[in-house]
Write a structure and sequence with these properties.
20 helices; Insect_Ionotropic_Sensory_Rcpt; cell membrane; glycoprotein; Glutamate receptor ionotropic, delta-1; transmembrane helix; alpha/beta; Rossmann fold
């Protein structure tokens, strides 16, 4: 039964209870309330301006007539004998009563249960009586208390009215059960350990308190959970698939890893992909309902990654920590690299121009065949055309008949004109945009763009937009599960990607890197119209002790400008400059290869010239006649005859 009284009328709420031998070991109610006041005076309990939730378990010795008020604030009294269920309900009440106190009397049947609370209790709790405090405070039912105190009363000493007890404590930051003091009926409360894990500035430093994080698997595979084994429901690590360091820093390090380091908590990740969703009438993505179900069952304290906080989420038994600012949803398109297929190349010239070009080409082919069979006039007809193009009419006249020269001249002139016209049209088609970049949803509809998104619920959100053009785009929206496919689609098709601005800028970086320099920052078109605004944040177990501190952290982060859209734009622009330099650097390879080829060709030419000169010199030596003296035999025959003319003959040497 529940009974509510205020101030001094609390004793009357208990009624008269007959004395029995069981009551002889029970501490009177007045003494137990005195212990609560001493706990408050020792700053172990906060000020009781909001009141006191009091659960009286069993029977208490009768009290004299009401005297002064037992508590200086409203008191909610709940009486029971089997108090496990009633006290559990008291711990889960949202009314600002503090603390939740269970006072044990004679015949009390209470022991903390093995089932954890569905969410954190918003207030501290005090247990007072003949309990095994060290074991009781470690029970799962008391695991989600921000602060739990337990005064374990000792038995009555023989031949004396003195009562003693030991005080134990367990807090969120310091999970171990510690004996922090003692109590005696004569000396009152004596506290020796005031540690709670809360610093003088309000900051919490835990002793490695586990923080169970529910991993939400969205349609996009941008966030991943690495399982030790496929059958395991936990994650050994989580990651973000991104090409922008700022995006990874904010989503993973700042919102998760740095938080664990800041509070000295131990992260434990639970994958919700295979868990059943929470049964509720609220229409939300199944991935979100799975995470909420895990939070409500006591299996997790926090969700990651952050998600859009729709109004329906606030109807669920969870606490929200938003980013403290509205994030606009816009879109981005990319000026695609101009590509011409065969049909576009044919459309550059009119059908009449193509017909004239074909007829003239056929006539020129016939002319060349005729020239080949004209004897001396058809010799080296290619030289005649070259001479004609070189305006060497006199030489060309020797190779080309006079009656053919007008036809050849017309063909050459027409080919030059058509080539120039074709190239100019081709350059225009490759450089001049055929339409203006879209700025609004209306432009997207008129230019036949198709929306892309990597979260499935975006289609549902946009389908209820008040803008008819946004609703039309939502009817044909395409959901892409792989982050790698989005840059490919933006570069290859007439598509626009829509998401919150930080995610849009992250996708822009992926597009510039994927294009290999063909799409630079100047080719990125950001829409001027916001399709909507929303709050982003994370879900926490209801009344978690870190919720208020995360709100303060979000306010400081917003004031620092760390998550502003301008920072994302600046980093995307920086990557655009790097992509441009990479595009220029990608030309160095072909240029270097061309230079090496030219050097090799020049070296080969020089070697060929040197070899040709050496070969010609050797051949010249071989072809020169040998210098032979025709009078050599005569000189050898007259060598032994004395002086010339001794035989009466004279030899005339020419």
């Amino acid at each position: 039964m529940d009974d509510t009284r205020a101030n001094g009328s609390t004793r009357a709420a208990l009624g008269a209870t007959p004395l029995s031998w069981e009551l002889s070991d029970v501490l009177p109610l007045t003494a137990q309330l005195s212990v609560l006041r001493q706990l408050r005076e020792q700053d172990l309990l906060p000020a009781a301006a909001d009141g006191l939730g009091l659960t009286l378990c069993g029977d208490f010795p009768p009290e004299p007539a009401p005297g002064p008020p037992l508590w200086d604030a409203p008191v909610l009294v709940r009486t029971c004998r089997r108090c496990q269920g009633p006290f559990r309900a008291e711990l889960l009440r949202d009314q600002p009563m503090l603390p939740r106190a269970l006072l044990q009397g004679a015949g009390c049947e209470y022991w903390p249960g093995a089932r954890p609370l569905p969410h954190w209790s918003p207030r501290p709790a005090v247990l007072l009586g003949r309990l095994d405090c060290r074991a009781g405070l470690l029970r799962p039912e008391l695991d989600r208390l921000p602060d739990a105190l337990c005064l374990q009363l000792d038995g009555r000493l023989p031949d004396t009215a003195e009562r003693t007890g030991r005080l134990f404590r367990r807090t969120f930051a310091l999970r171990a059960v510690r004996e922090i003091g003692s109590w005696s009926s004569s000396g009152g409360l004596r506290v020796t350990d005031y540690r709670t894990g809360v610093q003088p500035n309000g900051h919490i430093v835990t002793d490695g308190t586990p923080l169970r994080v529910a991993f939400i698997q969205y349609t996009s595979n941008q966030y991943n959970c690495r399982r030790p084994t496929p059958e395991n429901g936990t994650c050994s690590a989580v990651g973000v698939h991104t090409q922008m360091p700022l995006f990874r820093f904010i989503q993973l390090e700042l919102k998760l890893l740095e938080m664990a380091q800041q509070y000295n908590t131990t992260l434990e990740f639970v994958d919700t992909a295979r868990l059943p969703p929470l049964r509720t009438s609220v229409r939300l993505p199944r991935s979100t309902l799975r995470a909420v179900g895990l939070l409500a069952s006591g299996g997790a304290d926090h969700t990651w990654p952050n998600s859009a906080l729709q109004s329906a989420i606030y109807q669920l038994p969870v606490s929200m920590v938003d980013n403290r600012y509205l994030v606009p949803f816009s879109f981005v398109t990319v000026r695609r690299p101009a590509r011409l297929d065969a049909s576009q190349l044919l459309r550059l010239l009119s059908p009449g121009a193509w017909a004239a070009l074909g007829v003239s080409t056929m006539l020129m082919a016939v002319l060349l065949v005729v020239m080949h069979h004209l004897g001396s006039h058809g010799v080296r007809f290619s030289d005649a055309l070259a001479m004609l193009l070189g305006q060497s009419v006199s030489l060309g006249a020797e190779r080309l008949l006079a009656r053919h020269r007008p036809l050849v001249g017309v063909w050459v002139a027409m080919s030059l004109i058509l080539t120039t016209a074709f190239l100019s049209d081709l350059i225009t088609a490759l450089t001049v945009p055929r339409d203006y970049p879209p700025r609004t949803a209306r432009d997207l509809v008129q230019q036949n763009y198709r929306l892309l998104a990597d979260f499935g619920h975006m289609k549902t959100v946009y389908s209820h937009s008040p803008n008819p053009h946004v609703r039309k785009l939502a009817s044909k929206m395409e959901i892409v599960s792989s982050p790698d496919k989005i840059p490919q689609a933006l570069l290859g098709r007439r598509t626009a990607y829509t998401m919150a601005l930080p995610a849009v800028w992250e996708t822009v970086v992926g597009v510039m890197r994927r294009s290999n320099g063909s799409a630079l920052f100047e080719d990125i078109n950001m829409g001027d119209e916001a399709f909507g605004v929303t709050l982003f944040g994370s879900m926490w177990s209801k009344h978690h002790p870190l919720v208020e501190r995360r709100f303060a952290f979000a306010n400081r982060r917003l004031a620092s400008g760390l998550t502003s859209g301008r920072r994302f734009e600046e980093q995307a622009r920086h990557f655009g400059l790097r992509a441009r330099s990479d595009a220029v650097a990608s030309m160095h390879g072909p240029l270097l290869l061309c230079a090496v080829g030219l050097l090799l060709g020049l070296l080969t030419l020089l070697l060929e010239l040197a070899a040709a000169r050496l070969a010609s010199r050797r051949q010249r030596v071989r072809q020169d006649p040998v210098q032979v003296d025709p009078l050599a035999p005569l000189r050898s025959a007259t060598a032994g005859r004395g002086p010339a003319g001794s035989d009466g003959m004279s030899v005339v040497v020419p």
